[in-house]
Design goal:
The structure holds two protein chains of two kinds.
Chain A: E1 2-3, H1 16-24, E2 31-33, H2 37-73, E3 76-79, E4 88-94, E5 103-104, E6 107-108, H3 109-122, E7 129-133, E8 139-141, H4 144-152, H5 163-176, E9 181-187, E10 206-209, E11 220-227, E12 230-231, E13 235-242, E14 247-253, E15 256-263, E16 271-278, E17 284-292, E18 302-309, E19 314-317, H6 323-334, E20 339-340, E21 344-348, E22 357-360, H7 368-378, E23 382-395, E24 403-412, E25 419-424, E26 427-433, E27 436-439, H8 456-467, E28 474-478, E29 483-485, E30 492-494, E31 500-502, E32 507-509, E33 515-521, E34 524-531, H9 545-551, E35 557-560, E36 576-578, H10 580-599, H11 601-609
Parallel strand pairs in A: 4-7, 4-9, 9-10, 10-35, 12-18, 19-20, 19-21, 21-22, 22-27, 28-34
Antiparallel strand pairs in A: 1-3, 3-36, 5-6, 7-8, 11-13, 13-16, 14-15, 14-17, 17-18, 23-24, 23-25, 25-26, 26-27, 29-32, 30-31, 30-33, 33-34
Helix pairs in contact in A: 1-2, 2-10, 2-11, 3-4, 6-8
Chain B: H1 14-18, H2 23-37, E1 48-55, H3 67-73, E2 77-83, E3 88-94, H4 110-127, E4 131-137, E5 141-148, H5 151-160, H6 172-182, E6 188-193, H7 199-211, E7 215-222, H8 224-228, E8 234-238, E9 245-249, H9 250-274, E10 278-283, H10 289-300
Parallel strand pairs in B: 3-4, 3-6, 6-7, 7-10
Antiparallel strand pairs in B: 1-2, 4-5, 8-9
Helix pairs in contact in B: 2-4, 4-5, 4-10, 6-7, 7-9
The chains are: A alpha/beta, B alpha/beta.
């Protein structure tokens, strides 16, 4: 209890008046002759005990009356239990991440979290300030009705999103509201992989509600990619299956079953790899899935991937390219990876006529000028520099450690975004750009060890098939809601439902639903954003109370489980109310009682004499 | 002035009446008024001797109307008779210090009231040819006048009222014993006192008197302030006789005091009734007719 006018409490000294009257009442100076004094003495003797009690009671009532009035004058205010709670800034973080869609006891965990949120809203008063936050960055504020509607419409996310960020934002909102009372309520499944690090919420009291059920055994597809991204048309699907035991899987392309099998499962990490090779008849950008049998958490039983399937590139080899290149192309042709034709040329620079082309150094040093002119005519932003000799080692991808003895310096003629595939020291050795790859050394053992390396043929195939096919083939792996850079050539997204969504700006956000979203260049599919849940979201292990408390605020945080009532857990700050009227009433009551007791003396006396 | 319409002194305010004259005169007025107010002849069933006429008053018994005078003079008078009795009465008057007290300046002290009452009662009895004596006492018997029926004897009683008194105690038993000795035959004893004494002492004395065949009437004189504690504030209340001092806040003890006084009166009434004595509480603001009627009624019960 506190006082709005505490100085007035000084008037409490007035209680000395009835005290002094009570203590000094027998110090009487007036003497009166009264022959019937014997009756007076007898009256006092017979009723002295009652009189003393009555006088004491009167004194106490008078003191109480004075005190109550003085306290009322000081305008007391206090938090009163049992009344409405104090206006509270309440931020509710509702964890609707993918893992909350797991079904336990016949209903999703999210349904219980949603019910808890509604129960909290039932306890809200119009004077409260309320927010609802979800891990995907959305925030609702306003009336209880608006929040109730938002909760009813909430669906599980496709991934983990950012629950910790939501809690941090909730703390900021609650703190910034300027209310005396504030609170954060985090409704979560308490997944260990979600709450990996502490969240700083300051001194805002937090309440964590995490249903106490132990997590069920979960099986999930935690990885699925096409390898390579461009199948010609051969390729492979690499998948990772999380399962403590064996589980059957199915791989689909555009809904058609491509393969079925059984993942062994188990192992220390519980993850088993799956690889399926195929040469499907489909062509173009295709969406595929890796699926396992449904379990309690359905959302991670399917994982998406995208693949570009095309015919083998048609390649022509210039006579001056050398025997190693011809042999490699022959081998790839024999394996149906390449086809002889004029689509892509493997040619010395001085013989370059068009792109796409795998460009080799000039066949004769005296042809350097012709080579650079040909590059310029073809629009390639590079030129050959002086010939450098001497042992050097190349670095870059599969070519790391390749010994190089002779090479031509490569000079860029204009700034470009081209890739540097391999370098020697700080100088580029192999560069690649739009429909061209330039190699700084001739393909012979005297210039470099490249042609004699085992990786030469696959590397050459990758260069030809992945970089010189004349179209971009970007696949972006993302999680729901991730921030992404928009490829400059991408005009729009094609959703799994076939809708076209235009893209603008340099940045974009990954869609909230899992699936394959194709990047459109004009009207043609030229790449894909593959949205899948975070693999960790499939690990459903829960945190203990102490761990949750440590992650979410520390000492001001309470963790409750299913069976604990909400009463006394939320909106716990009671309102500060004026106690002026109660104290005034108490003072009046004391005075009324004083009057009654004073008037009751006669009745007491009469009872005493009968 | 027509005596039938004259104001009756026995119904006057005692203090106002006392201010009008000496006790002797006042006593006469009281008795005259009292006799005038008697509705019935004092004698019934005894041989009586005609004494005088008096004007008829409403309520008088028609048996005593003198029809001859009414027929002759067209004036209605009633005949009054004198007893032929020899009742011996003794008035025992408490003159202790406690009696010389009044709760208000406008009221008579208990003693002044009692003296006027004594004078009136004595006169009334003497007019009935009764013998009247007087015993005054405080801590000792101050005056002892044997009963006589002569009119001059009343003057002696009046004179004795001025004798010394105001002692610091009330020894009523001694006074009653003295009265018993003064009244040899069966007679009447009227004790006029504020009864600020022990009940048991008085009871024994009264029982002795009633056992001897005397009619005993006790007139308990009280000032209204003694009965109601009609004062205010805080004070030390001191008994002028015993010196007993009681500090008290009047407002706090008033009700208890009243209850105590009523209990004491009840005790006196019960004790004296058990002893065969009459008892009446007389307030000093009551007209003298009230106690006079009470005492006279007791007289009428005697032969």
């Amino acid at each position: 209890m506190s006082f709005l006018a505490p100085l007035l409490l000084g008037m409490a000294a007035a209680v000395a008046v009835p005290l002094l009257i009570h203590l000094w009442r027998r110090r009487i100076g007036t003497r009166v002759d009264f022959p019937a004094a014997r009756y007076l003495a007898r009256a006092e003797q017979e009723h002295s005990r009652k009189l003393r009690l009555r006088n004491l009671l009167l004194m106490l009532l008078r003191v109480a009356a004075v005190l109550f009035v003085v306290i009322a004058a000081a305008r007391p205010v206090a938090r009163v239990a049992g009344g409405a709670h104090a206006p509270t800034a309440m931020a509710i973080v509702l964890d609707n991440s993918l893992s909350t869609s797991v079904i336990i006891d016949g209903e999703p965990v999210l349904a219980r979290l949603r019910a808890a949120a509604l129960e909290i809203l039932d306890r809200a008063e119009p004077t409260d300030r309320l927010w609802l936050l979800t891990p995907d960055g959305r925030t609702w504020g306003g009336s209880v009705q608006a929040l109730r509607q938002a909760i009813d419409q909430l669906e599980p996310l496709g991934g983990a999103a950012d629950p910790r960020g939501a809690v941090a934002r909730a703390a900021g909102l609650a703190r910034g509201a300027g209310f005396d009372a504030s609170q954060i309520v985090v409704l979560t499944d308490g997944q260990a992989t979600t709450w990996t690090e502490p969240v700083a919420i300051g001194d805002i009291p937090a309440l964590v509600y995490a249903p106490a059920e132990t997590a069920p055994v979960n099986r999930a597809v935690v990885g699925a990619v096409a390898n390579p991204v461009r199948w010609t048309p051969r390729g492979a699907v690499d998948a990772l299956v999380l399962s403590p035991d064996s589980v059957t899987y199915r791989i689909t392309l555009e809904g058609r079953t491509l393969a079925r099998g059984t993942a062994v499962g188990g192992g220390e990490s519980g993850i088993s790899p799956v690889q399926v090779r195929a040469a499907p008849p489909e062509r173009g950008w295709i969406a595929g899935t890796v699926e396992i049998e449904p379990d309690e958490l359905r959302a991670d039983d399917v994982r998406h991937f995208a693949v570009r399937i095309g015919a083998p590139p048609r390649v022509s080899v210039h006579a001056a390219a050398g025997p190693f290149v011809r042999s490699a192309v022959d081998a790839l042709t024999a394996a149906d990876r390449l086809v002889k034709g004029g689509e892509i040329a493997i040619v010395p620079a001085d013989a370059l006529e068009r792109l796409p082309a795998f460009i080799l150094p000039p066949s004769d040093p005296v042809r350097l000028g012709a080579a650079n002119r040909a590059l310029e005519r073809a629009g390639v932003p590079w030129r050959f520099g002086p010939l450098r000799t001497g042992a050097a080692t190349a670095r870059g991808g599969d070519l790391d450690g390749t010994n190089v003895n002779r090479r031509w310096e490569l000079h860029a003629t204009r700034p470009s975004t081209d890739d540097t595939v391999a370098v020697i020291g700080r100088e580029p050795w192999i560069v690649a750009g739009d429909r061209y790859v330039i190699l700084g050394s001739s393909v012979d053992p005297g210039s470099s060890a490249l042609p004699v390396r085992a990786s030469f043929v696959p590397w050459l195939f990758e260069m030809v098939s992945q970089r010189l096919t004349g179209e971009p083939h970007l696949v972006v792996e993302a999680h729901p809601g991730d921030s992404l850079r928009r490829p400059p050539w991408a005009d729009a997204l094609e959703t799994p439902a076939g809708e076209r969504v235009s893209l603008t700006g340099a940045a974009m956000r990954a869609p909230p639903r899992t699936g394959v979203y194709f990047l459109l260049r004009g009207s043609a599919r030229s790449g894909a954003i593959v949205v899948n849940a975070e693999p960790d979201e499939s690990r459903l292990a829960r945190l203990s109370d102490d761990a949750l408390r440590a992650r979410l605020g520390g000492r001001t945080t309470r963790v409750i489980r299913t069976d604990e009532p909400w009463e006394g857990q939320v909106f716990t700050s009671t309102d500060r109310r004026s106690l002026l009227v109660p104290f005034l009433l108490a003072g009046c009551l004391a005075m009324l009682l004083e009057t009654m007791v004073a008037g009751s003396a006669g009745r007491i006396a009469r009872r005493g004499t009968t | 002035m027509d005596s039938a319409r004259a104001p009756r002194a026995d119904l006057f305010d005692p203090a106002s009446l006392a201010a009008l004259g000496h006790i002797e005169i006042v006593a006469r007025w009281i008795v005259d008024g009292f006799i005038t107010g008697l509705h019935r002849s004092p004698r019934r069933g005894f041989s009586v001797e005609f004494a005088e006429h008096r004007p008829y008053q409403f309520g008088d018994d028609l048996r005593y109307v003198d029809w001859k005078i009414a027929a002759r003079a067209d004036r209605w008078v009633v005949k009054q008779f004198e007893e032929e009795t020899n009742l011996r009465a003794t008035i025992v008057l408490d003159v202790s210090r406690s009696m010389a007290w009044s709760g208000a300046a406008t009221r008579l002290t208990k003693l002044a009231y009692a003296e006027r009452l004594t004078a009136a009662l004595a006169l009334l009895l003497i007019r009935q040819r009764d013998a009247v004596g007087l015993v005054r006492y405080d801590d000792q018997v101050r005056t002892s006048i044997p009963p006589r029926a002569r009119t001059q004897h009343w003057r002696r009683i009046i004179a004795a009222l001025d004798d010394a008194g105001a002692g610091k105690a009330s020894r009523a038993p001694d006074a009653l014993e003295r009265a018993a000795r003064l009244v040899i035959r069966r007679g009447m004893v009227v004790l006029i006192s504020d009864l600020l004494m022990d009940v048991s002492d008085v009871e024994r004395a009264v029982r002795s008197l009633t056992a001897a065949g005397h009619n005993v009437t006790v007139l308990h004189i009280m000032d209204p302030a003694e009965r109601e504690l009609g004062m205010s504030g805080e004070a030390v209340f001191v008994d002028p006789e015993s010196g007993l001092s009681v500090p008290a806040t009047v407002a706090e003890v008033r009700t208890a005091y009243r209850a105590t006084v009523e209990a004491a009166i009840g005790e006196w009434r019960a004790t004296l009734a058990a002893a065969g004595a009459g008892y009446e509480v007389i307030s000093t603001d009551a007209p003298f007719g009230v106690p006079l009627r009470r005492a006279f009624a007791a007289r009428q019960d005697l032969p």
